[in-house]
Amino acid sequence: MTPPLLEVRHLRVEIPTRQGTLLALDDISFEIAPGEVLGVVGESGAGKSLTGASIIGLLDPPSRIAGGEILLQGERIDTLPDEQMRRLRGRRIGAIFQDPLTSLNPLYTVGRQLVETITTHLDLSAAAARRRAVELLEQTGIPAAAQRIDQYPHQFSGGMRQRVVIALALAAEPQLIVADEPTTALDVSIQAQIITLLKTVCRERGAAVMLVTHDMGVIAETCDRVAVMYAGRIVEIGPVADVVHRPAHPYTVGLMGAIPSMEVERDQLLQIDGAMPRLNAIPSGCAFHPRCDKVMERCKVERPELMSAGPARAACWLHEERP
Amino acid sequence: MNLVEVRDLAKTFEVSAPWLNRVIEGRPRQFVHAVDGVSFEIERGRTLALVGESGCGKSTVARLLVGLYSPSGGSIRFDGRDTAEQLAGRDALALRRRMQMIFQDPYASLNPRWKVADIVAEPLREHGLLKGSASAVRARVDELLASVGLATQDAGKFAHQFSGGQRQRISIARALATEPEFLVCDEPTSALDVSVQAQVLNLMKDLQRRRGLSYLFISHNLAVVRHVADRIGVMYLGRLVELADRQKLFAAPRHPYTRMLLDAIPDVKMSGRARTPVQGEVPNPLSPPSGCSFHPRCPLSNERCKAERPLLTEFQGVRVACHAVIEGRV
């Protein structure tokens, strides 16, 4: 078995506030193999973006990593000094954010931004970097790349801008790409194009992807494995087909049932009553227990850890091995 | 029986450069045809959904219907009467009372300085209902909150104390205050998480059954639309390209754009449904393509599509604006 590219062990992120310290991520552990696409799905406030930000070392203060470790090819990166982390970011871990307009500098041409990224990380001459930039734009499906490279971001449409952002993320051939809601700001027809692009370019280069999204449809189409998050914890993680077709955790079951389906017609959607708890009021025991329809006494007091549930692993007492 | 009848509705916005720039730089005046010749009906107690991508004019149609914009052309008839006439005349308030709107962003559409009780009671005050009786207003607010699944104690809270889904429930309670017959919902669940979206959609369907409401439902999400709508209109660059009953539209989509939209939906169940990749992007509405505005992205386009604009035509029980479909080139 190949050693994992990225390992996150017992990651814990806290946000100190005047009313006390909030626990935003609690004991997050997962691995990403080289070339693998891991989806991280959850509703707003589940902590999925925070997990991504921790890995690329871009947690907004005052949020801070309070425990656990993050390893890239066996080497700890969460404790690296800023300067080293800055060099690693872009070179070995690329990032794609939700809004393609805010992740590009409006005052510089697309080409200048690409060339800057390439020369920062790779030992190439300006002319070679520019050739490489044109190639990257071509690979990400931008027509007439040689001309468009000298245009500014506002001259590109939303979908084209996201292609530029993907080109930027790929510029230094990183081994891992953290994509935080890369298609959420885009129209459905463009969304499908971008997802296909992300999938093919990463497969061609053997780059692993951590895809953070709230859209189960995108996950089902793209990922090899998926982690479902709820209130700062992973509640289920496993191969995407198993999680989609045979969800093990009641929250995943609810999440799948709540999605209006194109295949089956139902009069009422399955609904999970209530809402995700706020960080300052996370319920005791299993955080999902007040919304769970299979709740047992034990769930209210004792917190379940991830345990085997078929091919996947779920944090739910329903799956406890009976002796 | 049609509650709403829309004929050749049009709305143009002027987007010219400022006057001085036009004089000095000799730039022409520019207009966007946000809505261009849209016609449809909504039956009483039914839901019509308009779907399309950003900039297709669906929200403009919603705003035209409730009178937030005045049309540049065409007519809207509500319960047999022309709304433009009525909104300009003395009984404007009577008409406004019968149609209400729910907006997309529940964070922006509720006044952060008002208590929920005041927010929900505002339409009552505005329309002079239950005048002079504070206790009757209070009782009505409680009843409205209960009907959308909120507690009566919530009336004393502020909007920021609620989650997105609860805020959208408050918006719905406010819209129901005047007992309208017709609700215009502009992307009511787009800002919500899926589990909460399911709650709000279930609530809206339930209210429709109990109160016989008619909805115009604006959305970009075909899966959501499939769940709520009886009839669906697909819009592209300000025009309706297909208008059909839900079953027909999903079973046999006619217009190439409708097919493309259906193909673009991520397949949650991983059924291995065959999909053709989507080509191109929505063109700039300032300079829409000639003829059929979809022709640059259309796999079926020919010379006629480039030159001649197709009209919405009755075809095997649906209405579709496409030369290829009508000529049987599909």
Structure description:
The complex is a heterodimer of chains A (323) and B (330). Chain A has 323 residues and is α/β, with parallel strands linked by helices. Chain A has helices spanning 48-55, 82-91, 110-121, 126-139, 145-148, 158-170, 188-205, 216-222, 240-245, 250-258, 297-301, and strands at 6-17, 20-32, 37-41, 64-72, 75-76, 93-96, 176-180, 208-213, 225-230, 233-239, 307-309, 312-314. Chain A has eleven helices and twelve strands. In chain A, β7, α7 (188-205) and β8 (208-213) form a beta-alpha-beta unit. The longest helix of chain A is centred in the middle third of the chain and has 18 residues, at 188-205. The mean pLDDT of chain A is 89. With 330 residues, chain B is α/β, with parallel strands linked by helices. Chain B has a single domain (2-312), classed as Rossmann fold, CATH 3.40.50.300. Chain B is built from 13 helices and twelve strands. Chain B has helices at 19-25, 58-65, 83-88, 92-98, 116-126, 134-147, 164-176, 194-211, 222-228, 246-251, 256-264, 303-307, 323-327; strands at 2-14, 31-43, 47-51, 73-78, 81-82, 99-102, 182-186, 214-219, 231-236, 239-245, 313-315, 318-320. Chain B has an eight-stranded mixed beta sheet, with helices on both faces. In chain B, strands 2-1-4-5 form a four-stranded antiparallel beta sheet. In chain B, β4 (73-78) and β5 form a beta hairpin. In chain B, α5 crosses α6, α6 (134-147) crosses α7 (164-176) and α7 (164-176) packs parallel to α8. The longest helix of chain B is centred in the middle third of the chain and has 18 residues, at 194-211. Chain B is globular and about 70 Å long. Classes of the chains: A alpha/beta (323), B alpha/beta (330).
Topology order of chain A in helix (H) and strand (E) letters = EEEHEEHEHHHHEHEHEEHHHEE
Structural class category of chain B:
alpha/beta
Q: Are there runs of chain B of 5+ residues with pLDDT below 50, and where? A: none
Q: Give the DSSP E fraction of chain B (strand runs of 2 or more residues).
A: 15-25%
What's the main sheet of chain B like? 8 strands, mixed
Quaternary state reads: heterodimer
Shape of chain B: globular
Residue share in helices of chain A? 25-40%
Largest interface: A-B, 46 and 41 residues
Largest sheet of chain A: 8 strands, mixed
Q: What share of residues are in beta strands of chain A?
A: 15-25%
Average pLDDT figure of chain B? 89
What portion of residues of chain B is helical?
25-40%
Low-confidence stretches of chain A: none
Q: Radius of gyration of chain A over alpha carbons?
A: 21 Å
